[in-house]
């Protein structure tokens, strides 16, 4: 069998494997596919003048055999045995095969060496092979990254900032000890305003998404603004959460507030089934030691830890911390609407700067919250009640005047119900 020589093939595979961080087997597969594309280019160039049509599946019966030891390759074609050949690329005559193998029959398949001569392969085919090889190596790298990180979506990993591309930061991400780093994109909307992304500075990031399909640039999208990062940091710092004594019920985070005058803030609701355990105290730690570690990692972000409650009124009141709530009125439980009454001096604290506190409380609880001044609300309620009573009195007086003037009244209005006279029936 003939062979097209590729001097230095073994060393080239080893070098590509190390520089692209992909296994040698993946490099060999990419090289086979690239050489086959080069062979296709070579065959198409032979029939340019004949206007021969090569469809997408024409070369499906061809394959490349890579010989690492001899440093070369062969092109093999699987052909079907027929009586009369109509396409020599896919068929071979029975008579020709029986000269070599007498037991051959119609319909059988044989594999033949169709390797071109070294000189015939041509410069254009070699260029095509090089271009396709680069593309195939990128595809193999993306495939391996996807397989490695697909199961790590929704987890927190250590990263290192590499460079800036437009408004995004390109991070070097490591999935485990001893494994090579992989590039990931940290978009502008996923960054924290207080972070300083200096080159080689390290951050914990939340792996948000592994992109599907061919993409230019990094396939991994990471976040510093995701609520999952806060959950991970608390779980990593609070042993009671890891031991499932304390559980995180809900998290509402505003890492990038709509106004630059408002800082990042998070509200987290925790609960426990153990009577002797204070879930809020466990998350805060002695003198705030535990929550301070989380705050430092998030570059000073404000964090409110509140106690979850199955009672909506209690839960809403807790969620508006640090404001003191006088009363919670569930005005429309079906639509999950509530009025929260607070003292005048607590009004601005309950609403928060530019509405941030009540906005996060609404996200945390899932209720539409309307903050009201308790004194003003009670005054308005009293005025409305008096007005309703006054209107009822006016209506009653008008009906009475109409009755005294002999105006015909509707049935059952001010007329007493008829009384059944039983005495007359007894005399009869």
Automatic annotation (TrEMBL):
Gene3D superfamilies the UniProt entry points to: 3.30.300.20, Nucleic acid-binding proteins (2.40.50.140), NusA, N-terminal domain (3.30.1480.10)
Residues covered by region (Disordered): 381-428
Gene field: nusA
Function: Participates in both transcription termination and antitermination.
The protein, known as: Transcription termination/antitermination protein NusA
Entry annotated with the keyword Glycoprotein: no
Residue ranges occupied by any K Homology domain in the UniProt entry: 262-325, 334-411
Species assigned in the record: Moorena bouillonii PNG
Transmembrane parts of this sequence: none
Family affiliation: Belongs to the NusA family.
